[in-house]
Amino acid sequence: MTPHVIEPDPQAGAAVKAADRAHVFHSWSAQGLIDPLAVASAEGSYFWDYDGNRYLDFTSGLVYTNIGYQHPRVVAAIQEQAAKLTTFAPAFAIDVRSEAARLIAERTPGDLDKIFFTNGGAEAVENAVRMARLHTGRTKVLSAYRSYHGATSTAINLTGDPRRWASDNGSAGVVRFWAPFLYRSPFYATTEAEESARALQHLEDTIAFEGPATIAAIILETVPGTAGIMTPPPGYLAGVREICDKYGIVFVLDEVMAGFGRTGKWFAAEHFDVVPDLMTFAKGVNSGYVPLGGVAISEKIAATFDKRPYPGGLTYSGHPLACAAAVATIQVMEDEKVVENAAHIGENVLGPGLRELAERHPSVGEVRGLGVFWALDLVKNRETREPLVPYNAAGEANAPMAAFGAAAKKNGLWPFVNMNRTHAVPACNVTEAEAKEGLAALDAALTVADEHTA
């Protein structure tokens, strides 16, 4: 790939910003309080603004550019598909749609061999829950407090983080529970084994009091993403699988963020040797180049709809351009050993590098993650584990994290910042040199966070 050169054009950037502020309504934002960066270009692990500043993207967009920006093979595949067949209704058999489904099914665990395509992750969750409710004839769905499942009606009610609050109608049949998180254990556990056992007991107690015969599904992010990248302790997901089997509950794993190489496996479920009944995916399936998501469906769930119509669908389900991007992305990941690279970077660069930063920076309370999916839990005090900023902080209360983020950007790193955490989630094909560049920028930014420790 030729070196990427950007000629600064502040005037063009100002025009882009002006048009954005005049007409674009941004998600999750108070419109009058935001100042979005005008982006001129992107390639690989980097993007540029109109002033010519380069940023190493340690967010992968929204944790979806798993093969980086503008991969030439995927760009070419989209162009070729556009010339051949730009779009076609989902009721027809289309070669690229069938091939995308085949390639995905080959990589999902167990018998998750049928693929229902959506436009993104939230719609995948919506349809997975609908399938579970129709399959069981039950209504309730259990989800974890520390979770994010999307912004559509059902998905936002399943979400545990504060973005749910404004849209929580309290009548969607959702029951929340505490999933394991040893660093901030709600069960007063001191070991991973204790945390796993107590979390499983808590879940089974919740089921007992809610009524097992009323519960259609349990949905979990295999490794929670936005909520903090808390890798589940050994035995936990297998225990949830056993509980679901015991009570006839559908087990749904949300791999929208953790899937397609992010954790150093095609799907995070492979780390825990567990097979769900339904698995949602999106984001990394085609590096976000064209919107695509879906549900991978087990044989027993799919059989429910052999003679009974499934009452759901989307105009753009399995859109040819999106599927062409998925086919090319999966082929690139195979040919360029992107999944293996993610595992290598996590084990040999990011993991050791982040732990070394933790030894030198008192603001780092815990380092956790795998592959290219890591979180630093930032604290005021390591002994008390008090978060660097309060839960869901805003304004002045969030000043320490805002200062950290500004310092990272000043050093050419675009950070993923959420509450009191920063996540290190670069592209799955990030190089060793790029990962080390990111670590150096984090090192400098953490000195700012350190100023707010006690």
Keywords:
454 residues, alpha/beta, seven-stranded mixed β-sheet, five-stranded antiparallel β-sheet, 17% strand
Could you explain how this protein is built, in words?
The structure is a single chain. The N and C termini lie far apart (47 Å). Strand 1 and strand 2 (46-49) form a beta hairpin. This protein has 13 helices and 16 strands. It has a 7-stranded mixed β-sheet with strand order 4-10-9-8-7-5-6, sandwiched between helices. 49% of the residues are buried. By secondary structure, the chain is an alpha/beta fold.
Order of SSEs, N→C? HEEEHHHEHEHEHEHEEEHHHEEEHEEEH
- Helix count equals 13
Main sheet strand line-up: 4-10-9-8-7-5-6
Helix-strand category: alpha/beta
Which percent bin holds the helix content? Answer: 25-40%
Number of strands: 16
The biggest beta sheet reads: 7 strands, mixed
Q: Averaging pLDDT over every residue, what do you get?
A: 96
Strand content: 15-25%
Query: Distance between termini?
Result: 47 Å
Unreliable stretches, pLDDT < 50, 5 or more residues? none
Write down the overall geometry.
globular
Global Rg: 22 Å
